[in-house]
UniProtKB/TrEMBL annotation:
It holds the Pfam family ECH_1. Belongs to the enoyl-CoA hydratase/isomerase family. Residues 261-289 are annotated as: Disordered. Keywords: Lyase, Plasmid. This is Probable enoyl-CoA hydratase. It comes from the Bacteria. Its EC number is 4.2.1.17. GO terms for molecular function: enoyl-CoA hydratase activity. It is an enzyme of class 4 (lyase). InterPro entries: ClpP/crotonase-like_dom_sf (IPR029045), Enoyl-CoA_hydra/iso (IPR001753), Enoyl-CoA_hydra_C (IPR014748).
Amino acid sequence: MRATAPVRQARYENLELATRGEVAVLKLARPTRRNAWTMPMVHETSHALAACDADDAVRAVVITGSGDSFSVGADLSEGSISSPGSDEDPIEVMRSIVTPRDVRKPVIAAINGDAIGIGVTLSLLCDVRVIARDARLATPMTRLGVIPEMGAHWSLARIAGWGVAHDLLLTGRRIDGEEAVRLGVCGEAVDRDRVLERALEIAEDIARHTAPRAVAVSKYLLQKAEWTGFTELRAEETELFARVADEPDAEEGVAAFLERRPPRWSGRASAEPTWQAPGPHDIEEDEEF
């Protein structure tokens, strides 16, 4: 059983995790290394995402970078490209970590600057991507003798199409934020100083207007639709629609709409039975990394 310590109690060395109302902001915080990744940073991000999932006071999550970069990929000064800053088995680590796809609430990537390598592949696991117009994106792994990770071959093809995935993953070429939107990799490009603000606007709109359980069920179905046929997906969708429509939040949502007032939701994403709590992490109170 996972504990549900509030997000505000978590402390990390390579991240900053804070709340703004009902939105958690997870900031990659190695600005002197342009937020380059190490294995300790991977573990911390996994733990922070699990904490955000467990805390029902958090309705949406925004991931961004400190300084002028989102993340420039693995920290090549910290050892092996597959396990920077650690001698851990990268296969075991990647199998066990919690990613944005595992969180039972929307996760928004605020790509405030250059995103290279895992900076791109992590953002592909988010539900929404807002990017700086002049940010540079690349998955240059084939130019370094390796391949993209974090399920990028699967996620990029489904987000932007097979042609775009072949183009970007096989060539390793760089694109800017405007082209990322044109290709369908990101949803919106804004000026650099507006990226976090715009991501927060989206997250706060979700927190203010949507029901936690309904959003969790919809995210579950969207993910299942990526590999399930229409007939099977529609059958489960119909069953879940009937179940959710019979819960108190459906009555509350209609009443709030008719009475022109903010809804008072009672359902919790962490209690949604279609999803198990992600990952092996037990979130202990006052835990520090």
